[in-house]
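Sample A.
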Amino acid sequence: MPEQGKKKILASILELFRSKDCLNIRNVRFQHLKYMLIFPLAPVFANMQEALFSNSVHLIGLDGMTLVGSAYCVGAGLLFALTKLKTISNISHLLAITTAITFVLWLIMPDSQLNLFVAMLFAVSLGGCAACASFAYVFVLNNTERFIGAALISLFFALNQLDFGLSIVSGIFSKIYLTALVTGTCICLLLYKARDFSDVKDNSKATLNPALKLTLYFFIAHYFVETFYTYLPGSSTQAAVIANGMTGILVIILAITLQFITKRSIWNMCNLFFIAIILTYALYFTQEGSAFRSVARFIHGFEQLGYIAAYYLLGCVFKKHGNFRLFKRCLIIVLLINAMAYVIPGIISVHALNLLPLVATFTSSLVFIIFILMSPAYSKYLFFADWSDDFNCSDMTESLRNLERSGILGNLGLSPREKEITVFLLSGEISKHIAEKLFISIHTVNFHIKNIYKKLNVRNRAELFAKFNSPDLSFSDHKEDKES
């Protein structure tokens, strides 16, 4: 690699390391709790299969865990492909009912090939639930809600691991826990309302741009490298799941600290995830029962950083650059690739188990190296792009609706043009796009923005978002003033 290229990558890494996000717990809208919970509930299933399905029953030469995991991914893609924006709430209701029925049938049937087939049908419908939930997660929630939702995925899974390993409840805990999760999933889906999706923008010009490609790379990579661990010897023993659960809970606390207190960029989580996973697999070259193998199982708890970072980043970027149609296409592709992520290590574990740590270490290292080499692209198209202020503010959909109803901008001393530009800013538009829509120069737009910030006593767009999303700002009071 040329010396100039190395310097560019190093400069980008240092720049990304110093980058920050800005989330505020006050931005959580409790009426959206059903959309925050549903997303964590359904995907947890994908991480519980080793404790739920017996390897003694096979179909077409594959074990239950591999078949059900693949069915979950394929079902999510195929079912979601049939949905439309106008019908997503109705389809969510139907999937909730189907999931409940097939789940009950799976629970009451004894282990057999028929039972495994029913489990696959259940996984297909639950995958559809997760797909619909993922759409709500991306397009309905704001950044803070999205991050908390992603953290809940990890928390639910870590708590399940810890309780399962400690055997606090009886040996059937996993199915009891899954019953609670499925029940919650179905209830949340049945509470979906069509009007909550009415604010989703139909970005007809959405394409798979560099920002989306980079985000999808990490999402697929994190899932692919993580799946290998499930097939490693001893990964589902009592000691292993306790270690994973304990570390996982601490890691979730670390993630929340990074985001809400130190304001560190999500990019740092991505790197910590890769480093931890590579170290985990490397330590699996040591002998079973050694201290290093035990340490590996604790370090693996850092997998939670990967889940949180992947889901949060995907949601933020897709809401900005994607639309419903593009989201469906990408989701189908991602889920099909994720289905292969189960099959590949599953085949290796059957025919060459001793090679699994080597393949896992090599694969993880390779995707991490590619991730690092793409640092300049992540800096340019994501974290320091001209739209990256979106990472530093809440989603303004609800506030903009209040803004239109209240006429609050009329009381702030802004000119008609400044009001217009303020609304564009709060919608997440960049200066270039504002200039194009208003048929004025970027210089004029920036001049108006400077005056807006001065009049509203804010320094940047993040503070502008915070000002208009603050609970101290009463829309109803201004509405009454306007009407009087």
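Sample B, a different protein:
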Amino acid sequence: MLKISEFQAKDVVNVLDGKNLGQITDLELNVSLGRIDAIVVPGKVNAKFLGLFGNGNEIVIPWRNIVKIGRDVILVRLDETIMAPITDPENMNTNYRP
């Protein structure tokens, strides 16, 4: 069993290029099915100072892209097209998640 606070304290690392994407800032929950659909990390590495200041960009990582949840890190598989941060949500189809 893993608590949300423990889950959010782990670094998220892309296995394709070894980049540390940061720590989880949010979760997308499917309440009716009782599961996590996606994790959300900052759009730019080091874009936030102690989690207080940021530019609002984020990367939504579908649960199916999580390769392994380890003791200290969460390994994900993301290519460049998925990692493009959402910069203008008004012009995005809000139902689309890669």
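Observation for Sample B: Helices lie at 4-8.
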